[in-house]
Amino acid sequence: MKFLLLVPGLLVLAAPSLAQPVQRRAAPGVKDAMRRCRLLPLPQVVDGARARMGDARWIGADLDILSCVYTLKFLRDGAVIWVEMDGQSGRYLGQTGN
To answer: What is the phi/psi pair of residue 62, to 5°?
Structure first.
């Protein structure tokens, strides 16, 4: 019973922190990789991949800092498709999934 009385109080205390916008920062090493690899901006690479992916929805990206390769994730009909793109040239390297 006491626990049920504490929950609303905890929610009130947590509300301001929950309302804060999420700040996105580059993962450690990404800025160095961008300089070393001379990476294209991610939106430019994503646009190049979208042209190939048709109606698939882009859901995220990872960067392999050592190879300077972006792995872009797309969703089509409930299936995830991983598309590898060269981060320096924007060239399509291949994909896994349908």
So the answer is: -125, 155
Cβ count within 10 A of residue 63: 21
Per-residue pLDDT, averaged over 3-23, amounts to 48
DSSP 42: H
In eight-state DSSP terms, residue 20 is: S
- Asked if residues 83 and 67 have their Cβ atoms less than 8 Å apart, the reply is no
Identify the helix (H) or strand (E) that includes residue 63.
Answer: strand 57-64
Model confidence at 56, in pLDDT bands (50, 70, 90)?
Answer: very high
User: What is the C-alpha end-to-end distance of the chain, expressed in Å?
Assistant: 52
Alpha helices in 1-98 (DSSP H): 2-19, 30-37, 42-53
Burial class of residue 46 in the structure, from the number of CB atoms within 10 Å of its CB (0-12 exposed, 13-18 middle, 19+ buried): buried
Q: Which residue has the tokens 């070393």?
A: 36
